Predict the structure of DEAD/DEAH box helicase.
Amino acid sequence: MPFKKLHADIQEKLTSLEIVSPTPFQNKAIPVIKSGANVFCNGPKDIGKTTTLILTTLQKLKCIAEGNAPRAIVLVKNKEKAVELYDLFLKYTKHNSLRVYLSHEDLHIDLLKSEIFEGLDILISTPSVLNKLLLSNGLSVSQLKIFSIDDAEFLTGNTPYTALLSITRGIKKCQYVLYSETMHPKLKRFETSFMEYAKKISV
């Protein structure tokens, strides 16, 4: 049972949220993501992909704050998705020390840079903002452990696709996990860049 092998703080939080057993998708995906491999996770809505993203991120960071640079980045389509995911993360990090930070287009880049400098563990961002932060040296990725992409279909558009390729070129070593409903041919192309030797989970 994947939940039984997660950090004790995560198990306690799941119990408080009355989440008792993993979905079939989570049974398959969590052990593979925990192994450290790059993973394409495919399946329809409401099978637990976003919850899996949150749980495996917390597991990777051992539920404790450390350092100043982000150790996890979560990429999303737009501001609305970023806010939604930020609120979900807060439900799971309420009683631990992990610092979750939200960035999107409505926030000035200089404000983002100054607040990020104060220290964070998990950064939720859109492709364009994340790319701007990296190009302006407003973000260090030297401590990055896991980079997840939620509902990755938006990357089939040329602008976010190009932004992501630019972002990943600046990251030396990191685990990538990409969640989508289907394996779009354009997403599969990432295998030749940052998704090397990726495993595939689908239900």
Notes: The chain has one domain: 2-202. The first strand starts at residue 39 and ends at 42. The chain has a mean pLDDT of 94.
